[in-house]
Structure formats: C-alpha cells, structure tokens
C-alpha cells in the first residue's frame, strides 16, 4: 500500500502521522510505502527507521546533474535513503507537461540508481467515455517503459490511476479496475514474460478509502493501492494497509 502525500503536511504533522501509522499497522506483513514531499523526506525516513515501511519520493529528474533549477536527481534521492520514486503521476503529466518520453528516461534513471519506479498510467474521463481506455494505457505503458527491462518483478511497480477518479471521490468499480489491471498485466507479460509480469506489483489508485479498499483488494489482479487523500490520516491509511479480504 503506497501513500502519496502530494504537497501536504508540515514537518511536525509528517512525524506525528508516521508515528501514529506505525503503531496502527504494527504486526502487518503487508508492504507499505510512504512518498512524502521531498523536503519532508528526511523526517519520514528517520521516523520509519527500524520499521519495514519503505520510503520514496514523488518525482525526480532524469539527468545525472546539471542546470535544472528546482529539480532533484536520482543520486540525491538514493542518498537520502529512498527505495522508490513515483513517475508520471497524472498531476505531473497534466500540470507539469510530463510526456511518456520523459517518463521513460526517468524509469531508466531510477533503475540505474537502484530505485524502484512506481509508474502511473491512466485515462481521462473523455478517453474512457470514447472507449479508448486500453489504447491510452498501451500507449503510456509502451512509451514510458521504452528501453526498460526489469531484471525481476520487484524492480517495477505500476499504478493504474484513472484520472477522473483522483481526488474526486469517484472510484472505478472494482470490476472496472480489475479489467484494466488485468489488461496491464497481460501487456507486461508480453513485454517481460509471465514470471516477471506476475510478480510486478500493480496498484489501483483514485479515491481509495477505508470503505472501498476491501472490495478492490478482493480482485485477483489488484496487488495494492496508491492512496492520496486517505493517506494523510493515520487511522484511514492504517485501515487501508490492514485491508480485509474475505474468502468467497
Ligand atoms: P486520491 O489520489 O487517493 O486522493 O484520489 C490518488 C493519487 O493521486 O495517487
């Protein structure tokens, strides 16, 4: 379960949130990732020390270094202790003009520095309504993974986030999310073979909350969630981490 805090919280709030969360998820064997704003990364990293919670950042540049005002490099991210980097979040694509080509360079750079890319893909409402969801997903997957071959399934995470479901309170139905994620896994299988495709974590993201996580996680191809709003409170994110799937 991955938390994307986006541009929220201050240092004190971040520390308290992690401390409360660690208490609330004590004993879980589920994998947890927290991606705070970059300037709060060290606080979160320190607060997670000694726990199994992994940490990541929400973006980075693809170049080694250079005149890129405001950016951070993979080396900086790695040195700070991060294990993961979110790449191509729809907010980065829509607001900051990130293209699949840029995402592909970031994926390769992340991998070169031993960071696991969490690559986000997803269609807009218009694209869904015009029936082009899978075409959009295929274009994003092919473009953003261009030139990248993970050596094992744990070197890549994909997050399927339909743009219309992010921060809107609208969630894809578990069946719709499953359909697209199954499609993603089939594409990964074509690219990388079944063994790797089956072990890549494919997450669903978009208004995941305590009251819908169980149903989503009951779907066979959904391995976890990328959570924005509901990751900003310890209690709700802990409930998501501690999701419950009942055998049918
Ligand atoms: P949300 O955000 O859970 O607030 O919809 C998800 C995301 O953008 O990763």
Give an account of the 3D structure.
The protein has eleven helices and eight strands. The two termini are 23 Å apart. α1 packs parallel to α2. Helix content is 42%, strand content 13%. It has an eight-stranded parallel β-barrel with strand order 1-2-3-4-5-6-7-8, surrounded by four helices. The protein is of the alpha/beta class and 248 residues long. The chain has a single domain, classed as Aldolase class I (TIM Barrel). The site of 2-phosphoglycolic acid has 13 residues, from β8.
Instruction: Give average pLDDT, whole number.
Output: 96
- Main pleated sheet: 8 strands, parallel, barrel
The CATH superfamily is known as Aldolase class I
End-to-end Cα distance, whole Å, is 23 Å
Total discrete domains: 1
Helix-strand category:
alpha/beta
Which distinct ligands sit in these coordinates?
A: 2-phosphoglycolic acid
Please list the strands of the largest sheet in the order they lie side by side. 1-2-3-4-5-6-7-8
Count every helix, treating DSSP H or I runs of 4 or more residues as helices. Answer: 11
CATH fold node name: TIM Barrel
Strand share of the residues?
A: 5-15%
Q: What characteristic shape results from the CA principal axes?
A: globular
Secondary structure: helix percent? 40-55%
Number of strands: 8
**Secondary-structure element string:** EHEHEHEHHEHHEHHEHEH
* Residue runs with pLDDT of under 50 for 5 or more positions: none
């Amino acid at each position: 379960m991955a938390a994307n805090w986006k541009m929220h919280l201050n240092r004190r709030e971040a520390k308290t949130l992690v401390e409360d969360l660690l208490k609330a998820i004590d004993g879980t064997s589920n994998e947890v990732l927290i991606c705070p704003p970059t300037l709060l990364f060290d606080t979160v990293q320190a607060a997670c020390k000694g726990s199994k919670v992994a940490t990541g950042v929400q973006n980075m540049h693809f170049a080694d270094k250079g005149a890129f005002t405001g950016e951070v490099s993979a080396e900086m991210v790695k040195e700070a202790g991060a294990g993961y980097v979110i790449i191509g979040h729809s907010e980065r694509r829509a607001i900051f003009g990130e293209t699949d080509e840029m995402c592909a360079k970031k994926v390769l750079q992340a991998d070169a520095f031993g960071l696991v890319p969490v690559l986000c893909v997803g269609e807009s409402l218009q694209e869904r309504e015009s029936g082009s969801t899978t075409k959009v997903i295929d274009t994003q997957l092919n473009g953003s993974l261009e030139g990248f071959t993970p050596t094992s399934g744990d070197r890549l995470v994909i997050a399927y986030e339909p743009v219309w479901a992010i921060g809107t309170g609208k969630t894809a139905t578990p069946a719709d999310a499953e359909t697209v994620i199954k499609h993603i896994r089939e594409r990964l299988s074509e690219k990388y073979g079944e063994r790797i495709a089956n072990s890549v974590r494919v997450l669903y993201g978009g208004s995941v909350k305590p009251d819908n996580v169980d149903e989503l996680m009951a779907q066979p191809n959904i391995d976890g969630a990328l959570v924005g709003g509901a990751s900003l409170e310890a209690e709700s994110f802990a409930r998501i981490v501690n999701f419950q799937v009942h055998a049918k």
